[in-house]
Amino acid sequence: MLVLLPPSEGKASSGRGAPLKPESLSLPGLTAAREAVLGELVELCAGDEDKAREVLGLSEGLRGEVAKNAALLTAGARPAGEIYTGVLYDALGLATLDAAAKRRAARSLLVFSGLWGAVRVTDRIPSYRCSMGVKLPGLGALGAHWRTPMAAVMPEVAGDGLVLDLRSAAYAAAWKPKGEVAGRTASVRVLHAPTRKVVSHFNKATKGRIVRALLSSGVAPAGPAELVEALRDLGYAVEAEAPRKAGAAWSLDVLVDEIH
Asked: What is the pLDDT of residue 106?
């Protein structure tokens, strides 16, 4: 099983670890694309601060994020699973998983990123601020920048098992499963059952809990249909729609009664 996650907007501090080594990250086929984004982001943030804030969509209160980005080449690095925080990652609780579940997380979780493309939770990265929706002056829209390198590396990363897609729309734009990979991909929404609407906070929290439950249980669904049964066995109310044509993904709605 491969689980595709969005990053968190907020991030923990970089800490005092050794600086980033781009060549050490997983998915080495993305190295050149990563270095291009990293170089331009550092250059942007080392220059005109107001321009950098405008490009990155940062408020006055987040001015410090510009200086953080300017120092990315020398900042300490920590495992990505420690850098990403926020509602989904709080609910997932990587640090409190048992040893077996942590090993499953290291193998199966892939976090999409405007800066890195995608990283494993064990990859060591510095704290940064750069969403997939950013348009860098020299590279343009990051979603478009990542499509070609992602298309080259992701089919192999996806292997021949289930792909559980929990990304938000901006990050899903960087790679869309195609062909037979799409047929074993399940894209999940979390809906407030009484209103049938997506509510951001509990959407993220429920996705984190779903991933934690799957990792902790050790269940290994072979495909989307088996995932539906596994989630129901774990106590979730799930509505599933199988693809109507070849090359399309399954759509799963997880229904939650309470917002918390």
From this structure: 98
Please give the sequence-ordered ranges of beta strands (E in DSSP) within 193-258, or none if there are none. 237-241, 250-256
Q: Which residue has the tokens 């899903």?
A: 172
Cα 74 to Cα 177: distance, rounded to the nearest angstrom = 35
Cα–Cα distance between 79 and 213 in angstroms, integer?
22
Q: At what angle do helices 200-217 and 224-233 cross, to 10 degrees?
A: 90
pLDDT, residue 260, reads 52
3-state secondary structure of 110: strand
Instruction: Give the amino acid at 208.
Output: G
Phi, psi of 78 (to 5 degrees): -135, 165
Instruction: Give dist(CA 183, CA 193) in Å, integer.
Output: 27
Other CB atoms within 10 Å distance of the CB of residue 75: 21
CB atoms within 10 A of CB 101: 19
Q: How is residue 179 written in tokens?
A: 């062909």
Say what the alpha-carbon torsion angle 154, 94, 253, 223 is, to the nearest 10 degrees: 50
31 Rama class: left (phi>0) / alpha (psi -120 to 50) / beta: alpha
φ, ψ of residue 233 in degrees (nearest 5):
-65, -30
Q: Which residues pair with 237 in a beta bridge?
A: 255
Express each pLDDT in 96-138 by its tens digit: 999 999 999 999 999 999 999 999 999 999 999 999 999 999 9
> Edge-to-edge strand order for the sheet containing 237-241?
117-120, 109-113, 2-5, 163-165, 185-192, 250-256, 237-241
